[in-house]
Amino acid sequence: MNIENTQSQMRKGVLEYCILSIIRRGEAYPGDIIDEMKGAGLQLLEGTLYPLLNRLKNAGILTYRWVESTSGPPRKYFCLTGKGNEFYILLQATWNELATGVETLTQKRGELYDNQSE
């Protein structure tokens, strides 16, 4: 079995939630999103981020505004729409449910394994 493929699928599953969590705190520039993800130990490439942001914008989850930059071309800053905030709340509930379930199962597995090794 290819562990890299499984790891990649797990990361993709939470990527959207992580990105929306960053944007929910306030307007976000894609470069800052990438930096924050890297700072949290989660690798994110521009080639992954931009298509995701565009898909979320087209779905009405995100909107953006252009901001003039003193060091180059204007920058696009993304923020959640009302629909996006509702979507985020649903994702957050799903994540909490999933994380609790996984934690419960992995702890039980650990207890079972500990009991078997005695």
Describe the structure.
- The chain is α+β, with helices and mostly antiparallel strands.
- The protein has one domain (3-116): Winged helix-like DNA-binding domain superfamily/Winged helix DNA-binding domain (Arc Repressor Mutant, subunit A).
- Helix content is 68%, strand content 14%.
- The protein has 4 helices and 2 strands.
- A two-stranded antiparallel ribbon has the order 1-2.
- A hairpin with a 2-residue loop joins β1 and β2 (72-80).
- The radius of gyration is 18 Å and the shape is globular.
- The two termini are 30 Å apart.
- The model has no long low-confidence stretch (mean pLDDT 91).
Chart the SSEs and their pairings.
Elements lengths: L2 H22 L5 H10 L6 H13 L3 E8 L2 E9 L1 H35 L2
Antiparallel strand pairs: 1-2
Helix pairs in contact: 1-4
For the structure shown, list the relevant keywords.
118 residues, alpha+beta, Arc Repressor Mutant, subunit A
